[in-house]
Amino acid sequence: MAALLGAGILTGCGGKAEEMTGAETAKRTELIVFAAASMTETMTEIAEMYREVKPDVNIIYTFDSSGTLKTQIQEGADCDIFISAAQKQMNQLDKTADPSVNTEGLDFVLEGTRINLVENKVVLAVPDGNPAGIASYEDLGTDKLSLICLGNDDVPVGAYSIEILDGLGILEQLESSSRITYASNVKEVTTQIKEASADCGIIYGTDAFSAGLTIVDEADESRCRQVIYPAAVLNVSGNQEEARAFLDYLTTKECAKVFESVGFSMAQQ
Amino acid sequence: MDWYPLYNSLRIALISSGIVFFAGVFAAYYIAKLNPVAKGVLDVILTLPLVLPPTVVGYFLLLFLGTKRPVGMWFLDQLGIKMVMTWYSGIFAASAVAFPLMYRTARGAFESFDETLAYAGQTLGLSGTYIFWRIRLPACRQGIMAGLVLAFARALGEYGATSMLAGYTPGRTATISTTVYQLWRTDNDELAFRWVMVNMAISAVVLLAVNMLEKGNRGRRKG
Amino acid sequence: MSLYVDISKDLGSFRLSAQFEAENDVTGILGASGCGKSMTLKCIAGIMKPDRGRIVLNETVLFDSEKKISLPPQKRHIGLLFQNYALFPHMTVEKNLMTARRTVERDEKKARKAVGEMIERFYLTGLENHRPDQLSGGQQQRTALARILLTNPRLLMLDEPFSALDGYLRWNLELELMDILKEFENTVLFVSHSRDEIYRLCDKACVMDQGKSTPVVPVKTMFDEPETLAACMLSGCKNYSQAQPGWDPDGGEVRKRWVYAKDWGVRLECRHGVSGDIAYIGVRSHYIHILSDREEERPNMFSCRILRIVEDVFNMVIMVTPLNPGSDSARLRLEMPKEEWRTYANGEKGNGGDIIRVWIAPHDILLLRE
């Protein structure tokens, strides 16, 4: 799998699809997919599934941070499908988006193909056995909580955590009673929860899944902005039909299973 | 400016310097006597905290002291003491990271110690304890002081392991270093810089004090 | 009051096996550096542990490997003066002395009084507040000795006490030390590689070579009648030959007082009968005399060729080789006052290549065992 990934990255950065393999592949269609790094596992698994659905289509991935991918597309990299970890980077490439977001007036998104693919829920996770007995976001305002671990402001999930606590009206109370400990990255938050150093923590569903943490509550729209992964076919694609077909495949039940297995939720269309 | 991080950093640095002083000196003394193989192995193990990323050191400590880990659980169950996420968790973190500095400099000093001084002490009838504290240590004073200063400075500036073990809870576990880092990450550069100056001022004062003590000693020797 | 030592210890390159006794006087151990003499002192002091053996001081067993006795250095009451004196560098002279005195005297006032007296006795007045690195070599040695004597040792051991000093200072210190040793009532062990120091300072001595000690004999005997090759070499003798006792190369009558010097190819007559275990003979440079052509033949006379003549400060050194040597490398070293050489060489032979006659008096031949 690592070899596949490596090859994908190498060719993704400007390599021509034809160069890949010999005569047999000449008949096959190459689809170049740029996807957010957090999707590496799931998308790789889906590519293998897709080989059985459409053996003549070869999926080639480039995984990186959404901002980097957006820049590469803007600079003319070959790309058929873009999956971003936030609306922001997709908007920056979408001419139908607000000019205040798409400041450069870029037009790469193929009309009518943009969808909300998956959602990464902001969840309340607790250690094994949930020693403090915290069951919901509401419990954070009670005496059950002695210490909660949050990501720092600049860790994306940190900003959402603050939004949630603020919405509950308990942020200042928790801060003044020194019941919040701030970690500088997500790994640190998950470790503190796993080791029960803190009673609970707020992180992404995918992080909770990969760290094997128990999720006791999910934040819905009313608590904080949703973390949506949008996807779209790009208008620079030379295989727009095949690209649409793959995008459709991503929204099927088979793929939903894969996404949900790592903590993503399917987005509401 | 909330001065809690200064107070917390100082007490952590002072207490862990004390712990590291005794632990480092004894480890150096006893390990210097071992056979080369055991010496080599222990040397590597005891120097590890110096070369590992502090965050990793913090993680290993967490595997011992965490509330679900044997040591941490015992303290919590038997004594009701939580070893992590408290102000004194910073002491464990700072001690672990500063220990190799004290150990290594002390060992260097002990190795250059003229062993005949200890022999002379023995034949004169002085006890082992007296020889250790009143002859060996004073004779190696310079190296040991250097180690202690390094260890103190390191303990004062400790970030990674402290962040893992004590976290950053303003008003409870915040130290100068974790405060600086959090302030800087949240774009509060000006306040972060002020704390950096505080940190530097303390280190400078300590170094100056040590230098002056050393000079005073030498002055008396000449006079 | 006496010291009994019989120890052995594996030192890697050789085996230390020291066996000697010392009475209430100054006993020397003469040996080249690295022969094991310092190690012997350390074993007696208890700093090092012998592999096996027994050390007894004034009826107190300090060490006995069979009975598993090994007193710690603190309980042996032995003073050891180290080569570098081992003064505590961070303490003043007075503090060095007080530290030692307090191990035998609990009362601080009494201790201070004793230290004060010792400072006066050892000419350290005015230096009380100096640190060791501010003292001269001699002052350091006096401080170190004073420090040892303040602990009332039952045995005093001196390890190359003059090796850290240069010539002139050395002589003065030696005179001082002589007085101090005279006043000290207990046993003294004096270790040195200098036969002169041993000769001047000790009553008795033994020789240590490659970790092995010879029996203790009076110093005079050791130098005038050394018994082994090693002892003879250490006593400063320069001329040696392998020897065959009671043997005549011409197959003539065997005489008890004859010895054949194999290397030199000559038969010599000794003062006493030569016992069968004699393996070497030695003759000191001063005791090989030149016989002028005018003089008559004598016993123990043989001819040599002059190899070279070296002028020393007060002496002439003449290197010669016997005419019929038993070994090609046979060399003899003659030494005589310049005046004597001039008398001989004046008008006679006295250049390289010349043949001269030499002779040795029977009582100057040293008979040596292996």
Write the layout of secondary structure elements.
The complex is a heterotrimer of chains A (269), B (223) and C (370).
Chain A: H1 2-12, E1 29-36, H2 40-53, E2 57-64, H3 66-74, E3 81-83, H4 87-91, E4 115-120, E5 122-126, E6 148-151, H5 156-168, H6 171-176, E7 180-183, H7 186-194, E8 200-204, H8 205-210, E9 214-218, E10 228-233, H9 240-250, H10 253-261, E11 264-266
Parallel strand pairs in A: 1-2, 1-3, 6-7, 6-8
Antiparallel strand pairs in A: 3-10, 4-10, 4-11, 5-8, 5-9
Chain B: H1 4-32, H2 36-51, H3 54-65, H4 70-79, H5 89-111, H6 115-123, H7 128-139, H8 141-157, H9 160-165, H10 176-185, H11 189-222
Helix pairs in contact in B: 1-5, 1-8, 2-5, 3-5, 5-8, 6-7, 8-11, 10-11
Chain C: E1 3-10, E2 15-22, E3 26-30, H1 37-45, E4 52-57, E5 60-64, E6 69-70, E7 78-81, H2 93-101, H3 108-121, H4 137-149, E8 155-159, H5 167-183, E9 187-192, H6 195-201, E10 204-209, E11 212-213, E12 217-218, H7 219-224, H8 229-234, E13 239-245, E14 258-261, E15 266-269, E16 280-283, E17 288-291, E18 301-311, E19 315-322, E20 332-337, H9 338-345, E21 355-360, E22 366-368
Parallel strand pairs in C: 3-9, 3-10, 7-8, 8-9
Antiparallel strand pairs in C: 1-2, 1-4, 4-5, 5-6, 10-11, 10-12, 13-14, 13-16, 14-15, 16-22, 17-21, 18-19, 18-21, 19-20
Helix pairs in contact in C: 2-3, 2-4
For the structure shown, list the relevant keywords.
heterotrimer; A: 269 residues; alpha/beta; D-Maltodextrin-Binding Protein, domain 2; 2 domains; 6-stranded mixed sheet; 21% strand; elongated; B: 223 residues; mainly alpha; MetI-like fold; globular
